[in-house]
Amino acid sequence: MKYKESDGIVIGLEVHVQLNKLNSKLFCGCSPRYHDAEPNTHTCPVCLGLPGALPVLNEDAIVNIIKVALALNCKIEKQTLFYRKNYYYPDLPKGFQISQYDYPIAIGGKIKVNGMGGERHIRIKRVHMEEDPARLVHKGPIESSRYSLIDYNRSGMALIEVVTEPDLRSPKEAREFLNALRNILEYLDVFDDSLDGALRVDANISLAGGARIEVKNISSYKGVEKALLFEIVRQKNLARRGIKITQETRHYDEKRGVTTSLRTKEEEHDYRYFPEPDLVPLGVCNRIDEIRGSLPELPDIRRQRFVQQYEISDYHAKVITSELRLADFFETVASEVDNPLLSATWIADVLKGELNYRGLDITAFPPKHMIQILQMLRSKKITEKSAVQIIRTILDEGGAPPEIVKRKGLLKIEENIIASAVAEVIKENPAAVQDFRNGKNEALHFLMGQVMKKTHGRADPNIVNKLLREKLQCT
Ligand code: ZN
Ligand code: MN
Predict the structure, then answer these.
(1) How far is the CA of 253 from the centre of ligand 2 (A)?
(2) Ligand 2: centre distance to CA 57 (Å)
(3) Which of 152, 229, 276, 404 has a CA-to-CA distance to 282 between 20 and 30 Å?
């Protein structure tokens, strides 16, 4: 553990979410699906900032951001304004970013996370809309790269920025927060998480007595936790040497896992925000109820429903609903296999573990295979051990359960065959038999293991146990 509560860690996040499922960018008709495209092929006068080009607001982007804001329990503002945030950087062709300032779309929400000492509510300060700058590509590390390449395909993409209050108390909590947020966004179907740069985070962190440090543009979930851990160690080391921590903006180097200084922190007023004259103030109140009505069932609600409807544990419900596709998978299986508890256990504990181990997701496993496996288990045609073997075989070699059962000879074996294996084992292990009769219970486990080995894990352990006890007691 690199940090403790007495370090006085205070973390706030600014999360940028790219609305990459829209049909066009935020202010022009260019396609936002550029991720596999050649650089600078999805551009037009608007997103290149050419003189005379005017922005036209994408209505669907506003619908999406309202969905997100409602899902985060925010209050939607009656009227909202776009602003120009002025600064020069090569990725910003207009010399300003169209963003929002004192009239954001939404304020005051919260997200529930599993934090230090149980469940905590992390407050959302605001949710606003802005345009994405272009993408800069460097050769090697940013500080030593001899040139930058600019790809304007990303310029003008719709971005949602979710800003938290400084409520997070550890890097782990920050990760939990991002997981919860990602989960909600996935259910809302507003972005494709798998695309490069779909979610980027600026993290503010301070330790007791030190100034606030901002780490810019962290582009992975794991990166956020690592960058924050790095900052805690760095800031603690400076403090130990009596060096005062002053306000600063830093860059996170994903490859090296370190943060490097970019500049001493600028203040908000340095950006000379002023209302964007090319966009009128926007009133959205007439559509809020309609949008609220269109919201899907969100992760928390679905988790509660799973606990009530299927009577599965809250832990299983949480694991299963933490991924939309896994939750759908469970419901498909549970509707066919008349035992939700069994389905939940095998999906959340066994299948999920096997998938994680192989770096796969649930799309690698058809639900109908799970249904067949669980039905064979329920009708006692296979043992649990064989069920695991079938799952592994499907993931590693492909194939379907009935065929794998046949090919690998996994049908559970009959009681009379188990009985003869039991008899052989008793004959072959007189010492263990004697131990058992002298009251050593471990000897029974040993003998059971021998029978299971002889029957290649295809014997029902309950029957083995029953037969062994009978034989040992009567001979
Ligand atoms: Zn464009
Ligand atoms: Mn921003």
Answers:
(1) 19
(2) 18
(3) 152
Q: How confident is the model at residue 474 (pLDDT cuts 50, 70, 90)?
A: low
Which CATH class, in words, describes the domain spanning 415-474? mainly alpha
Task: Record the pTM.
Answer: 0.85
Ligand 1 centre and the CA of 53: distance in Å? 10
Closest CA to 13 of 154, 130, 164: 164
Q: Tokens 């009681």 — which residue? A: 415
**24-80 per-position pLDDT tens digit:** 999 999 999 988 899 999 999 999 999 999 999 999 999 999 999 999 999 999 999
Report the separation in Å between the CA atom of 261 and the middle of ligand 2, taken as the mean of its atom positions. 19
Output the six-digit token pair for 375: 């039905």
Cα 84 to Cα 127, 220, 284, 312: the distances in Å are 17, 28, 21, 51
CA of 44 to the centre of ligand 1 (A): 4
Nearest-Å Rg of the Cα atoms of the chain is 29
Give me the phi and psi of 363, to 5 degrees please.
Answer: -65, -15
CA 16 / ligand 2 centre spacing (Å): 7
CA atoms within 13 A on the CB side of 277: 0
How remote is the CA of residue 98 from the centroid of ligand 1, in Å? Answer: 14
Contact 117, 102 (CB under 8 A): no
Helix (H) or strand (E) holding 85: strand 83-86
Ligand nearest to the CA of 127: 2
With b for 16 or more beta-carbon neighbours within 10 A and e for fewer, the 419-450 pattern comes to bebbeebbeebeebbebbeeeeeebbeebbeb
How far away, in angstroms, is 239 Cα from ligand 1 center? 48
Ligand number, closest to the Cα atom of 25:
1
Domain with CATH 1.10.10.410 in the chain: 415-474
What does the block give as tokens for 234?
């760095």
What average pLDDT does the segment 166-175 reach? 94
| pLDDT at 324 > cutoff 80 | yes
